[in-house]
Write a structure and sequence with these properties.
Largest interface: A-B, 39 and 31 residues
CATH superfamily of chain A: P-loop containing nucleotide triphosphate hydrolases
Order of helices and strands of chain B: HHHHEEEHHHHHHHHH
Number of strands of chain B: 3
Strand content of chain B: under 5%
Strand order of the largest sheet of chain A: 6-7-8-3-9-10
Shape of chain A: globular
CATH topology of chain B: ABC transporter involved in vitamin B12 uptake, BtuC
Structural class of chain A: alpha/beta
Largest sheet of chain B: 3 strands, antiparallel
Strand content of chain A: 15-25%
CATH class of chain B: Mainly Alpha
Helix content of chain A: 25-40%
Number of strands of chain A: 10
Helix content of chain B: over 70%
Strand order of the largest sheet of chain B: 1-2-3
Oligomer: heterodimer
Distance between the termini of chain A: 43 Å
Largest sheet of chain A: 6 strands, mixed
CATH topology of chain A: Rossmann fold
Distance between the termini of chain B: 45 Å
Shape of chain B: globular
Radius of gyration of chain B: 20 Å
Number of domains of chain B: 1
Radius of gyration of chain A: 19 Å
Number of domains of chain A: 1
CATH architecture of chain A: 3-Layer(aba) Sandwich
Structural class of chain B: mainly alpha
Number of helices of chain B: 13
Chain lengths: 251, 302
């Protein structure tokens, strides 16, 4: 489904990604882990066309996507969420999700003007998804009035309304308590994983091991390990990357 | 109706067009210091259409608005990569360029022994369609408000449509909006074009109301006022800018007791509102609360 071929991304003197190869097959849930600054988010940004890679190629369903504009890549069936939580705070919860599916059908400007939020098909689709993530009762709130875990859920729902084939989740449980994280994990398990191939970036190992069938570990922009969760978490290189970092924090 | 009231209401109507034009750009998250340029372009071109070429008013207005929209689209194409301060500077520079161009351009023809047409810094005199066609000030006020209400209906439909939500999404987070698969550039240019056309309608109406325009009228303060009206009245609904215009022209300019102090009071009002209500009286939060209240009161749940 997604194939990344010796990808490198350089910012001035910083090598954010060095020669990364990665392949994701349909239906798979890949966990992307690594210490802070190891290039995980950069990898998602390159996939979604925010940066043009310095070297290497990306194929999505055997179509080359590096060089395409962001919105064109999204049209191919990729959705993502953001680590630093991006929502339309001054719009209602309903409109946040409704707005995300405008480009799915009738992309002509005249149709966009004629279609209102009373379109029955759109309404039902959005309301159903709101119901799944437990925000239906609060659909007319402004998104910024929601507490953080609900904003994360809103972001997940917004990514799912396009029924993407590939879903990129960037720290879906960032800033959450263990209990909220657990709820988020089971929500992802229930509504995201059955329908799409996922790449999940997360620091919380419980969540990663519960959701993912394969892990890829980045450190300083290079891939240092790949495999099933139990394999990867025993890998000495991975332990060094993580524990070395932890020891530094304790000193 | 007394003449003074008709003049005030006409002024409120005409200035509302530029306020709505600025409001549309606020929706897509940009601050334009150049909407007065489209007001000016249309004031001149529609004035030329009726005074020099003898066209009827409504064609003249559409022609003026159309030229303004084309100019706005071109400016939109040139500035689509610019954001915040850089967008503001570019639009200001464009507007000043247009204004200074009107200072030097002279294009006149002789009609019934009289020279008619733009005459540089002297301005453009004799846009007399209203007198020649025996339109009373009251009737002309009706024309202004008729067109304004049409524009407002357009805005109300826009706010309910997908297109309107795309504009608001753009205004909040352009990158995120592109992540929803929308071609952001296309919608930015579209919003600029609409805004140019709306400012153009106001400019055309103004030229025929005043019968005389000169470049100095269209300086940056006109555009700054247009923006201030949106910021006072609120960016949550198109009625916001109208409230701003009514407060300033209908109240501050018309109440004799504060005449001479108008700009001081107005400036103070803007400063206070920016601190306490940064997105105006009717901001998104209040509009949403009013909508919710309305729905609970008068409609069944869907």
């Amino acid at each position: 489904m997604l194939k990344i071929d010796s990808l490198s991304q350089q910012f001035e003197a910083v090598n954010a990604l060095i020669d990364v190869d990665l392949e994701v097959s349909p239906g798979e849930v890949l966990g992307l882990i690594g210490p802070n600054g190891s290039g995980k988010t950069t990898l998602l940004n390159v996939i979604t066309g925010l940066y043009a890679p310095t070297q290497g190629e990306i194929f999505f369903q055997s179509q080359k996507i590096n060089g395409l504009k962001t919105y064109q890549i999204i049209h191919l069936g990729i959705s993502r969420t953001f680590q630093n939580l991006r929502i339309y705070g001054r719009m209602t919860v309903f409109n946040n999700i409704w707005g995300a599916q405008h480009s799915l059908s009738d992309r002509g400007i005249r149709r966009q003007f004629l279609m209102s939020r009373n379109q029955k098909k759109d309404r039902e689709k959005v309301n159903h998804l709101l119901d799944l993530v437990g925000l239906y009762e609060r659909r007319e709130w402004l998104a910024k009035q929601l507490p953080l875990p609900d904003q994360r859920r809103l972001e997940l729902a917004r990514a799912l309304i396009r029924a993407p084939q590939l879903l990129l989740l960037d720290e879906p449980a960032g800033g959450m308590t263990p209990k909220e994280t657990e709820a988020m994990a089971s929500l992802i398990q229930k509504i995201a994983i059955p329908g799409c191939t996922c790449i999940i970036i997360e620091h919380k190992m419980d969540m990663i091991t519960a959701l993912c069938n394969r892990l890829c570990v980045l450190n300083f922009g290079s891939k240092i390990a790949e495999g099933t969760p139990s394999e990867v978490l025993k890998n000495p290189l991975v332990l060094e990357a993580y524990l070395g970092y932890e020891e530094g924090a304790h000193a | 109706m007394d003449d003074y009231l008709v003049t005030v209401l006409s002024n409120i109507g005409m200035i509302s067009f530029i306020a709505l034009s600025c409001y549309l750009l606020f929706l897509i998250g940009e601050i334009s210091f150049g909407q007065q340029a489209f007001f000016a372009i249309s004031a001149y071109t529609s004035g030329m259409a009726t005074a020099m070429w003898g066209w009827p008013l409504w064609i003249g207005l559409l022609w003026g608005g159309g030229i303004a929209a084309i100019a706005a689209a071109l400016l939109g194409v040139m500035t689509f990569r610019l954001h915040s301060m850089y967008f503001s500077i570019a639009t200001l520079a464009f507007a000043e360029m247009i204004r200074l161009w009107f200072v030097i351009i002279t294009y006149q023809i002789e009609i019934e022994g009289e020279m008619v047409g733009p005459d540089g810094a002297e301005g453009f005199r004799g846009i007399r369609w209203v007198f020649e066609n025996n339109v009373t000030p009251l009737q002309y006020m009706g024309i202004i408000w008729g067109i304004l209400i049409a524009v407002l209906i357009f805005f109300l439909l826009l706010e309910r449509s997908r297109l309107g939500s795309i504009f608001r999404m753009l205004g909040e987070d352009g990158l995120l909006t592109e992540m929803q698969g929308l071609n952001v550039v296309r919608y930015r240019i579209l919003a600029s074009t609409f805004a140019g056309f709306i400012a153009g309608l106001g400019g055309g109406l103004y030229a025929h109301f005043a019968t005389y325009v000169e470049p100095q009228i269209f300086n940056v303060m006109l555009g700054v006022h247009g923006m201030a009206y949106g910021l006072i009245g609120g960016l949550g609904t198109a009625l916001g800018p109208l409230i701003g215009v009514t407060l300033d022209i209908g109240f501050l300019e018309s109440v004799r007791a504060i005449q001479g102090y108008r700009m001081i009071v107005f400036g103070g009002l803007v400063a206070i509102l920016i601190i306490f209500m940064p997105r105006g009286i009717l901001d998104e939060e209040r509009v949403n609360r009013i909508c919710l209240f309305w729905r609970r009161r008068f409609h069944a749940q869907d």
